[in-house]
Design a protein that fits this description.
5 strands, single chain, Alpha-Beta Plaits, 5-stranded mixed sheet, about 110 residues, alpha+beta, globular
Length: about 110
């Protein structure tokens, strides 16, 4: 299962996301759920880095991707909202393979970077 958590503060401002795991929908290399999640989340992370967002941090390993922004703004909120909506649509179609949830400010992302 792929677990995706979005770091959201009390005001509803998203400062990043954490992606962990593998879908297990199909064998490695042909797993469309993993491919879709990877394309969305890696695309967002690389876009934020290319935008030279202040404090943009991306940490990636085989089964984990962390993307966090120190000072989220309107542009970053639009990117995070698009990724979240797209992932939630995937979750509705492949609920046994992906789970999208909210984190609370400062809990899982800030301690990892």
């Amino acid at each position: 299962m792929i677990d995706i958590s979005f770091e959201v503060d009390r005001e509803g401002i998203c400062s990043g996301f954490l992606v962990r795991g593998h879908a297990g929908y199909a064998p490695r290399g042909s797993d469309i759920v993993c491919a879709a999640v990877s394309a969305l989340t890696q695309g967002a992370a690389h876009t934020l880095q290319e935008m030279k967002e202040p404090g943009a941090k991306v940490v990636q390993s085989d089964a984990e991707l962390i993307c966090i922004i120190d000072r989220p703004d309107i542009a970053t909120q639009a990117i995070f909202a698009m990724v979240k909506r797209s992932l939630q649509e995937l979750e509705s179609q492949y609920s046994g393979y992906i789970k999208v949830c909210h984190g609370s400010h400062g809990t899982f992302l800030l301690s990892k970077t």
